[in-house]
Design brief:
548 residues; alpha+beta; six-stranded antiparallel sheet; disordered N terminus; elongated
Length: 548
């Protein structure tokens, strides 16, 4: 392999790592919350009787007396549909819990269902409303709302949706209403906020998603964890570790804003507008994502999405939420490949087998290009003796050496880039498939066989502690991948006589093995199968051209 081929591989590595860092610019699961028990006889929107009216005193008292009316107590309301079980509180009319029925927590497929709400200090919960202006901002953090409606359970009901309304007053007496509309089988929630008789200096209305950070979660080369927004067509993500300074977005077309990890999303979408702002802030180890709209004195209806980053579920609420699955520059490659993966899974039922079948398909598509690469490398190898003589003859004249080398290529009709160009053409497919396998929720906790119980996590066998290997254990699949690369390098014809370059090429399997050791096992499986297929093709090519 000549210098240009070596440079292409090194540049590919740099692009792969740099690409992820650039996109970084562009949670173990909390214990399940004990939701209040719901009597089986309650049905959709069963009304809660209003508090009794105060009884007037028969005669005035001669001494002042503190009112005997007890302060309102916090009330929790349960909403259960086909895909989640949510708990809302009358304190702040906020979401206290939302458990996804179909998705286990992060500890494994046998862990309790995934909780989408992590409350902050003082039980700070999502969906805080703030009115901002020249004076002190008003918020509904401690507002004790009265509830219009009761527990909602869609099972056995013929209703497609139901509404739960909360009525309260802010600290200055301003009336406020928050009305939630839930669907029977969707992760989407409609939230209508109405503020009447607001102070004249109010200029902005904010809706805030509050997320207490999970210390075990990270945002790094392999994972996503932090505030997120879609501004126009631009996907904006800030890792939780980078929230030391507030992030301010807009004014502009904030399509939605919220909080995400690699596989789940909580997002707030306002009505269409182009003068919105959003902020990402860290307060007491709690991430606050604010969606800020100009105050118009009218009610505002938001669309919320709290659920998995799964294409069909996202599009069912609003197609704009699908942008939360950030497949990067090569999304146009990643999306159809993941669609093929789903199609294959409907036949095999094993995503590991699906990755293998997808790899075979991609390899077949690039079979002619790979053959041309082999031909070019073989031709370059034949020219090595002549190139060595040229190097010896013009060792003191670099310019003349380059001229004679190009003439040699021209006379023998050899393209010096022919060995690396096919690899560069395949590189976008690798990046697209890499992004797809990295963020496809279909692979989350999906087993393959044996010790590979989660294709979205690094493969580990046992618990042997090895430096730089986290989690601990032997990365068997990754070691096989490195071995396959070593064999592939050994089988490929060396197109350079430089011993230093030859040693560097033999180091490439070591570099890739170290780089892949903490990659998701699904991606390692793809690369291993790709190497095995390349070795097979190389062996076939060598056998076909052995005589020449």
């Amino acid at each position: 392999m000549d210098k240009r081929s070596l440079l292409a591989i090194v540049l590919s590595l740099i692009i792969l790592i740099g690409y992820q860092e650039f996109i970084g610019y562009l949670y173990p699961t909390p214990p399940p919350r004990q939701a209040p028990s719901v009597p089986s006889e309650q049905v959709v929107s069963s009304p809660v009787p209003p508090p009794p009216a105060p009884v007037p005193e028969a005669a005035p008292r001669t001494s002042p007396e503190v009112s005997s009316v007890a302060p309102p107590q916090e009330q929790e309301i349960t909403v259960e549909n086909a895909v989640y079980r949510a708990v809302l509180s009358s304190r702040g009319a906020r979401l206290k819990s939302l458990i996804l029925k179909d998705y286990p927590g992060d500890a494994g497929e046998h862990s309790p269902p995934r909780e989408m709400v992590r409350q902050g200090p003082g039980d700070a919960a999502p969906l805080e409303v703030r009115l901002e202006g020249n004076g002190t901002p008003l918020d509904d953090t401690e507002v004790m709302y009265t509830v219009e409606g009761g527990n909602i359970e869609f099972a056995g009901s013929f209703q497609d949706q139901a509404t739960l309304s909360f009525h309260g007053s802010l600290s200055d007496g301003t009336p406020i209403t928050k009305a939630f509309t839930f669907a029977a089988d969707s992760y989407g929630i409609q939230l209508a906020v109405r503020v009447r008789q607001a102070p004249p200096d109010i200029s902005a209305l904010s809706l805030v998603w509050i997320e207490a950070l999970d210390p075990t979660q990270t945002d790094d080369f392999y994972t996503t964890y932090g505030p997120v927004a879609l501004v126009g067509r631009k996907f904006v993500y800030e890792g939780a570790s980078g929230l030391d300074e507030p992030e301010n977005l807009g004014p502009g077309q904030i399509r939605w804003a919220g909080f995400t990890d690699s596989y789940f999303l909580a997002a707030m979408m306002p009505p269409p507008g182009d003068n919105y702002r959003s902020t990402f802030r860290l307060v007491n180890n709690t991430a606050r994502t604010s969606l800020i709209l100009p105050w118009t004195g009218e009610s505002v209806t938001y669309t919320l999405y709290v659920g998995p980053k799964e294409t069909q579920a996202l599009n069912a609420v609003d197609p704009v939420f699908d942008r939360a699955i950030d497949f990067g520059w090569f999304h146009f490659i990643a999306r159809p490949l993941i669609s093929l993966l789903r199609l294959s899974h409907s036949l095999t039922g094993n995503y590991g087998l699906d990755i293998i079948l997808l790899t075979v398909l991609v390899k077949l598509l690039f079979f002619p290009l790979s053959n041309k690469s082999f031909q070019s490398m073989a031709a370059m190898k034949k020219l090595q003796p002549q190139m060595e003589r040229l190097r010896e003859r013009y060792k003191d004249d670099r310019q003349k050496l380059n001229q004679e080398t190009m003439e040699l290529y021209k006379r023998n009709k050899v393209n010096p880039l022919g060995g690396c160009l096919p690899m560069l053409v395949q590189f976008p497919v690798f990046i697209g498939l890499y992004q797809g396998l990295l963020y496809a929720i279909e692979l989350r906790q999906a087993p393959f066989f044996g010790w590979i119980s989660d294709l979205s996590s690094p493969d580990r066998l046992g618990s042997l502690a090895i430096p730089f290997v986290d989690p601990p254990g032997l990365p068997i699949l990754t070691l096989f991948m490195g071995g396959s690369m070593l064999l592939q390098q050994w089988m490929m014809p060396m197109t350079t006589g430089d011993p230093i370059q030859q040693k560097m090429m033999m180091l490439m399997p070591v570099i890739f093995t170290v780089m892949f050791v903490n990659f998701p096992s699904g991606l390692v499986l793809y690369w291993l199968v790709n190497n095995v297929l390349s070795i097979t093709q190389q062996y076939w090519y060598n056998a076909q051209h052995a005589s020449s």
